[in-house]
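Quiz preparation item.
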């Protein structure tokens, strides 16, 4: 029995032998900091495509700019001008023997109420010297138009009498509108040397 017990001792000892803990997993050979193949190729694609993307954006902006410039070039240049016909108020605004400079800057005319050829007339004179196109001034004290460029002088009627101006000032079309206002038409011009001042469309006769 002793022998049997001895024989069984190793069995019991073997059965009672404690289990060793499981071996921990070996660390991966791939370093955490090492880029993966996917991340490497992703970075390479971004590195390659970013300059091309910027170039395409720049080219698109340039093309858009040229397109707008071309469209603007194809559009006609339009200058907005005031209408050739406009009203300047009733004849009572212009007393006899006066020159109104109210419309000189805005419309390029003087409205004059003066005697011409034995009649009292209201007419519109162009503020353009017939010499070289300068703008004369009305000198109230001297009762004449005087060009500051070369000294041409014109009576209140518009007739030239001094300086190099070869002919009188031009009249613009004028009429008495239905509402009683004077209406000037700058699209129509009348020249005295051509006998056009006799045209009823070049003046309005007043009492």
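Solution:
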């Amino acid at each position: 029995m002793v022998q049997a017990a001895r024989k069984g001792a190793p069995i019991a000892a073997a059965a009672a032998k404690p289990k060793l803990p499981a071996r921990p997993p070996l660390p991966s050979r791939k370093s955490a900091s090492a880029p993966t193949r996917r991340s490497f190729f992703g970075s390479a694609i971004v590195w390659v495509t970013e300059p091309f993307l910027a170039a395409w954006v720049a080219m698109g902006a340039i093309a858009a700019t040229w397109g707008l410039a071309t469209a603007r070039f194809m559009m006609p240049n339009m200058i907005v001008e005031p209408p050739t016909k406009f009203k300047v108020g009733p004849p009572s605004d212009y007393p006899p023997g006066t020159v109104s400079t109210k419309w000189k800057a805005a419309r390029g005319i003087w409205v004059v109420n003066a005697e011409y050829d034995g009649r009292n007339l209201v007419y519109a004179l162009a503020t353009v010297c017939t010499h070289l196109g300068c703008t004369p001034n009305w000198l109230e004290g001297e009762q004449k138009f005087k060009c500051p460029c070369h000294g041409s002088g014109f009576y209140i009627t518009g007739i030239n009498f001094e300086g190099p101006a070869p002919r009188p000032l031009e009249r613009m079309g004028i009429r008495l509108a239905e509402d009683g206002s004077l209406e000037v038409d700058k699209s129509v011009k009348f020249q005295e040397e051509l006998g056009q001042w006799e045209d009823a469309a070049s003046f309005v006769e007043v009492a």
